[in-house]
What does this fold into?
Amino acid sequence: QMAVQSQVNSEIIPAAQTTWLTDSLKQLFRIQYPVTNVYQYTDKSGTYFCVFTESRDSIIPSKDTFHFRIRAVNLKQESSGQFSKVWDMNDYVLQKDQQESNIWFWDQYIAFEDLDKDGLTDPVIVYGTAAANGISDGRMKCMVFYKGEKIGVRHQNALGLNERNTTVDKAFYNLPSAIQLCVARRMEDMIKQQEAVFSSGWQKAMKSKRTYFDEKNQ
It folds into this structure.
């Protein structure tokens, strides 16, 4: 039996093709920071453009630009050619306690795919922060947009074993297993790429549907 081909297509749009994103549209949807990427995706419900933006806050000569704020806005293109906002998400660095210096979208983990094969796209958006020791004591967040809900796994990296912890939204465990698996695979990839260290036994904790786990509370 052949699998039904899911009619979901997504691609990153080159900046030259984003002329439709006019100043008035940016104003309308409060797109204030420089645009870093635009993903276009189409499924049975229509055509969408997800606009990723990052603020530019301090530029250190010979070093990278630091972003203190990020925002993604998901726009649907209506049949009239107009756009409407479906959802948006924003976040920022924690400067007081954690002395984070940078927050940015982790493009290599972002995907617009139909994971549960219902003909609708299940956006997975991943981003993180850097603090005094880079990402090794920053945070990571993996957000899934599913049927109008924003559901996330949030992780605090740390050099100290007992300072690492992970919080999982309760609704995450109600997601189709294919979506849960997609997030778990990303977590495994982050470990391989040395972008995250989760507490030992994290897979078991997630199998037990734990909403919080760290090294002390397995």
Remarks:
- The chain has three helices and 14 strands.
